[in-house]
Amino acid sequence: MAVFQFAEHSPLSPAEAWRRLTEWERHGDSVPFTRVTVRTPPPTDVGTLFVARTALGPAGFDDAMEVVEWRPPRGAAPGRCRLEKRGSYVTGWAEFQVREAITGSTVSWHEDLRVRGLPGFFDGVLSAAGRVMFRRVVRRLTGGGSTDRG
């Protein structure tokens, strides 16, 4: 299992950072060769299903996800979203929190990424790649900058 986490500062309010992070289709704009499709009608809530399809030509895989916790930020209370990965190839979970900061907000991301058939020997590489990729997604969606080196 490849576990990683990071935190990013955003100049956006917690509500706006949350709104942008939960526009699932926009995640694909920051991940090469990936398109995200939401399979359930809006609005997002527990039970929302979406799939990130990563492909180069005919070769590719689906990362199917379900929202299992949905708590948008309210006032000083942080927001929290947890996704369970339901695919046949990519499994695990991801969660993020959005909390108020002195200026803007802080987004914390924590993920356990598993790829069926990939030996544990590759967990370090997968963790590093996941951290870089998802940090890039968060920065692009929220206009953020790093708050830590993790």
What this model shows, in words?
This protein is of the alpha+beta class. Helices cover 21% and strands 45% of the residues. It has an eight-stranded antiparallel beta sheet with strand order 2-3-4-5-6-7-1-8. Strand 4 and strand 5 form a beta hairpin.
Q: How is the CATH topology named? A: Alpha-D-Glucose-1,6-Bisphosphate, Chain A, domain 4
The share of residues in extended strands comes to: 35-45%
Poorly predicted runs of 5 or more residues: none
Helix content: 10-25%
Query: How many distinct domains?
Result: 1
CATH superfamily: START domain
How does the SSE layout of this entry go?
Elements: E1 2-10, H1 14-21, H2 24-27, E2 34-38, E3 49-56, E4 59-71, E5 79-86, E6 90-100, E7 105-115, H3 123-142, E8 145-146
Antiparallel strand pairs: 1-7, 1-8, 2-3, 3-4, 4-5, 5-6, 6-7
Short description:
This protein is an alpha+beta fold.
Q: What tags apply to this protein structure?
A:
eight-stranded antiparallel beta sheet, single chain, alpha+beta, Alpha-D-Glucose-1,6-Bisphosphate, Chain A, domain 4, 3 helices
